[in-house]
Queue: 2 jobs
Job 1
Amino acid sequence: MNKPALSKNYVYGPVPSRRLGFSLGIDLTPCKSCSFDCIYCQLGKTTHKTIRRFEFVDLKGLKYQLNRKLLSSSRIDYITISGSGEPTLHKNLNKIIKLLKKSSQGKIPLALITNSSLLSRRQVREEIKEVDLIVPSLDAATQRTFELIDRPYKNIRIENIIEGLIKLRRSFRGKIWLEIMLIRDINTTKREIARLASAVAKIKPDKIHINLPVRPARYGDLIPSLAQQRFAREQLGEICEIVDSFSRQKQQKMFTDIEKDIGAYLKRRPASIEDLEYAFGLNRNEIIKYLDILIRKGVVKQQNSKGQEYFIYGL
Ligand code: SF4
């Protein structure tokens, strides 16, 4: 395999994911290009808020990195297009999807995680039609609440997003798992949940996942009460489940040598990626980067315990 000229790291993981098993992540955008600037975003402030699509990925670099991962990983349940921004901002996404399918010989299902903002465009729906699973988000069904939570690029209208999701459902043959981030006292009221339930009834997703903002974000504690969680789940029907139904103590620390500190932390106790995110106040991709280094050095190992992946020092 000839190594192409140095390019960004497009491939990360595979990382254990609650919904997708071992997921190999494909990062298509520079951090952080997005059409939204959600109050719960783990990647920090959106520095490039846009709806203009652009080409960013060097296909040769992506192919090289992907093939290496496919050869070295013992288990991959999904190849997941997501990353440091909104992936549908990448122009000609169909070329990327074709490359991913071809490299994995169509044996590994392909998932796309999107904020739904560009699904109202027929071109975008066409480009993504070959993936196996789409995980679109819909945090609100009223414009005011949508703007409060997702802080979209100007002129994005929630009714267009909902319309795009309805059209996607009609034309897309794969699975759609709709994701709703429930934010305390904002999209948890009777009125907001009723509007969401009415949108969901038209979209007809295969599943609905309610996410909770349990990871440290910029605006303090946004986790809804148990009563609010229960109410939303009941109103959104049987296909709805709560994904992050746990809460952890937030810890934000500054470290000068993160790799060393993660190693020292794991010496004291095994930890999951989520534990490390909380302990170090870093986003998932950053933690994975340091874990990758420690695993390659042979000082840290990954181990499954009761369905949860842990990282352990010095096995
Ligand atoms: S859509 Fe995703 S990447 Fe964009 S701001 Fe929201 S959470 Fe962050």
Job 2
Amino acid sequence: MTPILAAHQLEKTFGSVVAARDITIEVPPKQTVGIIGANGAGKTTFVNMITGHLHPSSGSILFEGRDITRLTSREITRLGISRSFQVAQIFPSLTVFGNMAAAAGIARIGHGGTWGIFTPLHAPEVTAAAEAAIDLFQLSRYRDVQALVLPQGVRKLLDIAMAVVSAPRLLLLDEPTSGISIEEKFDLMDVVMSALKSRDITILFVEHDMEIVERFADRVLAFYDGTVIADGTPKETLGNERVQTLISGTKLRTHRAEGQRA
Ligand SMILES: Nc1ncnc2c1ncn2[C@@H]1O[C@H](COP(=O)(O)OP(=O)(O)OP(=O)(O)O)[C@@H](O)[C@H]1O
Ligand SMILES: [Mg+2]
């Protein structure tokens, strides 16, 4: 089967900083891949290269067998890759519905719609897509609440829902649970993962919390100093000695998770 994503020998340098080196991975459709690594390990750089927000210095990226290495982020979104950012990208003054309708309107234009900037956000197709995403992500109760006053967890959920309204086949989430309390993290991820899986979306998510990674990923990539030092099941990667030594906190958090299950 053709991998949905194939990265081959990716390198990215910023002056003397090597943010990505020799990254080669293949992801089959429908897999959920967790990405771990310390601050500055190159996780966001990797995500940015796949989504076209950065171009690699060398190497190639294929999406469903098609070379997307030099495409713009807009072209890549149109092909079926979407993302959320480390910091939620929402319109604070709009309601949840307003945000979703704006995202649906933009997605409609991206998919070759003929509408311009003055397209009404209450056009039937836009409204239907927005309502469906609100439903899917269990946001109905917040539908008419201004984004500015949403709890952080709901704001992150809204941001992810907005990335899904364009019906991507591959979704990249950069720290979906950052800034959220430990109690809220699992609930948020339960909602996100069941929504995405119901649509057969392939997921790459960057995450610092090893318990979240262990619970939700099928496979875990560990980044260190711009490269992948371990790639396997959560158990394999989190149990890897280099991962435990080099990625601070891993050992402690993994052991705590094991202790809780015992
Ligand atoms: N636009 C840029 N210009 C210069 N250096 C950059 C740029 N973006 C990233 N870097 C550097 O590349 C390295 C990798 O950064 P990156 O943001 O990918 O790390 P990260 O793993 O996402 O870290 P974090 O967990 O803190 O989000 C770091 O040394 C960072 O300072
Ligand atoms: Mg980052």
